[in-house]
């Protein structure tokens, strides 16, 4: 499974999102490749990803992709990430 | 936690006054400049990032991670810390208003990851976050962060 965490610049918020998504996936026992990407790269990467994680503001910029786009509001909240990611990976 | 965030922060400002989100980001940028992390151009780049992509840098309730991409304006990787006297609206749907702005500059996409992990570890703990936000002086912020690193 391939998951892309997307932010505007690819160095800050997407990296945090990737870290916390990996924690959640490890806890769920799911083997997935999580990649952090900026919005420019993400449009391409999202074509081959199963899931895209991003924020409400950036979701429209990703456009029409085959991946399931999941919006995370609080990037530090492992409960929120777990709740939203679980149905998508199982 | 082994990494001491107190030593990673190039500047700490507490109870700062900012009239709007641009002013709040400028304070974080000033901290990066003062610490020799970036040039002033980077401050404008952080503001432009929000103008272009919206307030997505407000990554959790009350917390903005101001940053732009690696560029000539970044001299080294570093972080600045600004707590605000009065919360500021960034226009985020769920995480406004902001009380803490962290300025982040990175030379590349990987060198700063351990520091970001430490930031996430500290700020995702509500009790520690409360103590940090209540701190009146930079020394108090450093003391809290240093005490975490020795645990």
TrEMBL record, chain A:
It comes from the Bacteria. GO terms for biological process: phosphoenolpyruvate-dependent sugar phosphotransferase system. Pfam families: PTS_IIB. GO terms for molecular function: protein-N(PI)-phosphohistidine-sugar phosphotransferase activity. Residues 1-90 form the PTS EIIB type-2 domain. Gene3D superfamilies: 3.40.50.2300. Keywords: Transferase. This is PTS system IIB component, L-Asc family. It comes from Arthrobacter subterraneus. The lineage of its organism: Bacteria, Bacillati, Actinomycetota, Actinomycetes, Micrococcales.
TrEMBL record, chain B:
InterPro entries: Ascorbate-PTS_EIIA_comp, PTrfase/Anion_transptr, PTS_EIIA_type-2_dom. Keywords: Cytoplasm, Kinase, Phosphoprotein, Phosphotransferase system, Transferase, Transport. Coiled coil: none annotated. It is found in: Cytoplasm. One of its GO terms (cellular component) is cytoplasm. PANTHER family: ASCORBATE-SPECIFIC PTS SYSTEM EIIA COMPONENT. SUPFAM superfamilies: Phoshotransferase/anion transport protein. One of its GO terms (molecular function) is kinase activity. Gene3D superfamilies: Mannitol-specific EII, Chain A. This is Ascorbate-specific PTS system EIIA component. The keyword Membrane does not apply. It comes from Arthrobacter subterraneus. Residues 3-148 form the PTS EIIA type-2 domain. Pfam families: PTS_EIIA_2. The phosphoenolpyruvate-dependent sugar phosphotransferase system (sugar PTS), a major carbohydrate active transport system, catalyzes the phosphorylation of incoming sugar substrates concomitantly with their translocation across the cell membrane. The enzyme II UlaABC PTS system is involved in ascorbate transport. One of its GO terms (biological process) is phosphoenolpyruvate-dependent sugar phosphotransferase system.
């Amino acid at each position: 499974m391939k998951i892309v965490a997307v932010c505007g610049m690819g160095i800050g918020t997407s990296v945090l999102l990737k870290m916390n998504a990996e924690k959640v996936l490890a806890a769920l026992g799911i083997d997935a490749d999580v990649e952090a990407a900026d919005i420019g790269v993400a449009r391409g990467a999202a074509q081959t990803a199963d899931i895209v994680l991003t924020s409400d503001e950036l979701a429209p910029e990703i456009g029409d992709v085959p991946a399931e786009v999941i919006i995370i509001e609080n990037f530090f909240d492992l409960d929120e990430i777990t709740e939203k990611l679980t149905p998508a990976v199982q | 936690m082994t990494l001491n965030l107190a030593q990673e922060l190039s500047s700490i400002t507490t109870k700062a006054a900012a009239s709007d989100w641009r002013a709040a980001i400028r304070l974080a940028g000033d901290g990066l400049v003062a610490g020799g992390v970036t040039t002033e151009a980077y401050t404008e780049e952080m503001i432009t990032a929000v103008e272009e992509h919206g307030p997505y840098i407000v990554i959790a309730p009350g917390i903005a991670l101001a940053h732009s991409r690696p560029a000539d304006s970044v001299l080294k990787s570093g972080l600045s810390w600004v707590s605000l006297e009065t919360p500021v609206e960034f226009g985020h749907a769920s995480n406004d208003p902001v009380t803490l702005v962290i300025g982040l500059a990175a030379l590349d996409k990987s060198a700063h990851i351990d520091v970001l992990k430490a930031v996430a570890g500290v700020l995702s703990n509500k009790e520690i976050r409360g103590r940090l936000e209540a701190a009146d002086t930079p020394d108090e912020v450093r003391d809290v962060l240093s005490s975490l690193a020795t645990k």
